[in-house]
Amino acid sequence: MPNTETSAPALEIENVRFAYGGSNSFEIVIPSLRLEPGEHVLLTGGSGTGKSTVLQIVAGLVDPQAGSVRVAGSRIHSLHGPARDRFRGSHIGMIFQTFNLLQGFSALENVLAALMFSALPKSEHRERASALLATLGIQWPDSPAELLSVGQQQRVAVARAVACRPTLVLADEPTASLDPENAAGAIELIQQTCRESGAALLCTSHDPAMRARFGRVESLDQLRAGVQVGAGAGA
Amino acid sequence: MNDATIIRRSLSARKLSTVFTSLSVAVAVALMLVLLMMRESGRAAFERGSGNMHMLLSGDSDPLTGILNSVYLAAPPRRALEHAKVEELAAKPFWAFFIPTQIGDSYRGLPVFATTGDFFSRFQPGENEQWSFKAGRAFEKNFEVVLGSRAAQETGLKIGDKIALTHGMPQPRSGGNEDKGDQPAPHVHDEYKFEVVGILEPTGGAHDRAIITSITSAWILHAHDRREKAEHDHDHADHDHDHEHAQETMTTEADLTDADKKVTGIYARVVSRPGSNASALIPVVFEQMRSDKSITVAQPAQEINKLFAIVGSVDQILIAMAAVVAASSGISILLALYNSMEQRRRQIAVLRVLGASAGRIFRLVLAESLVLGAIGAAAGVAIAWIGLRIVASEMKARLGLVIEPAISWQLALGVVSGALLLAGVAGLLPAIVAYRTSVAKNLRPLG
Fold first, then answer.
1. Which CATH architecture has domain A11-224?
2. Residue of chain A nearest B346, judged by CA positions
3. Sheet hosting strand A66-71, strand order edge to edge
């Protein structure tokens, strides 16, 4: 089960504003967004609209210019320095489009690295990492991650994201580099794994085909306009 | 999984860089250790050799040469003191001991140090240190020898063995003076057998590699040479080539003339209060001896200081060079880590996403730098250990200097600590870069 109080929403965003003034300038405005524990939500939007930045704000990697973000009931941006890093390591899992596995580390070590910074007792780390990798079909957990097939690398990335029994998994365009058939398989794997671990999932994608796989879809444009599609059943 | 695994993986991902960076630290540590140890060992060897003498009297051209020849047995002196002069000096009332010595002969390349029994009973190899015998005893009569510890080790001689000494000393392999003055060509005195009666414990001084015998025995060898030559000249004058005649006539103590009784150096100590090495008489006696132009007087401590003042400027340059090598090894650590930061920004960002704090990333990079320094330092100590043996053996072969090739743990600890400090300083900049790595920018461009 996830590492939080079940009564608190997995994610609660209120009046968040963030403006980026670089060459690809954009502005994020989210008056309200709420994910219940275990809920799966797809966040859509065109390229360059700030979907990835929303996830980075939620993860506490980027500070919003206004508003608040609560993860498992805690205002993540009120935490500072190592406390915020510890909170992220214990409550949030992240999956990236390019997996971002640690090069030179084995598949097992990649998952252990996530557990190393979590609140889970050290004695459980190896057993949990091995069990997760076995469940996800990784046959050679001691192989260097970069030598695994793309599909296997994605499984390792998913295992790493849920290893610390997070309240919330953030998936940033996890299927963008895959063909439609593999993309369907990948999102199914992520959702299935999150369901089994009880984690809520906030997934970004600009792929219209992904909409059918989520019970609730939010678009950045609609959120800005104050329109929330509303709570769905999750996938 | 812990920080050590992350550091190990990071270093092994850049094997070539890790090897060469560590190697540059190793070379700097080894160079520094060898230079410092050679300096320490050299000074220790020199300081120990003069024992409890206050001054050395010789016929050498200058005091430093006298010390090098008669105390460190570097080469036979070019000029000896005449018997009458020795008698005159010995009669002075202010000597606590007055020990005539003579060098000039050798055995298998090792110097023969001829002296009197007082050398063992009065002269001390170190402050309040008596001679100690590993086996046997001091010589008591002519044609007995005592072996210094290293001489025993090198020759493999045992108590009771009999040896023939070579008249003359071999010159160092290179750098020796080709002009040997009036030194005779080395030849073996087979007709006189010397019996090994004692083997000394090591003292750390030059006498460790000496074959020590009575000065009368050395005089007899030289007198025999003189008599052989006289016989040979006589035979030639008579046109009678009976060479056997000379060889059958053995020289004894009774045949010695004053001219045979040559002394190349005198170990002297001025009377002082019991238990005290200092005496107000020393400068007075020293001045009195110096005023005698027929002899050269030297105070070992002063001459050693003079020697190290000459050598010191050279080894300061060498140590400065080693420091430059050490600094460049620090820079190579800095560059290796700094360059790797470009490739590792994503890894650092991922670790931050997984929950590692910026402070922990800082410590990881700093620890990685220290590990590079530690690997290099350990390799450096090993290289120095081997290098010291090579340098010591070369110094002995080329310069005749015996230096104990041991690494003092205090010095090794100091140099290793210095290397770690350098690695720590070199790791600071990359660690700061790692600390300030933007997680958001390095995971994926904003968009």
1. 3-Layer(aba) Sandwich (3.40)
2. A100
3. A26-35, A11-20, A66-71, A74-75
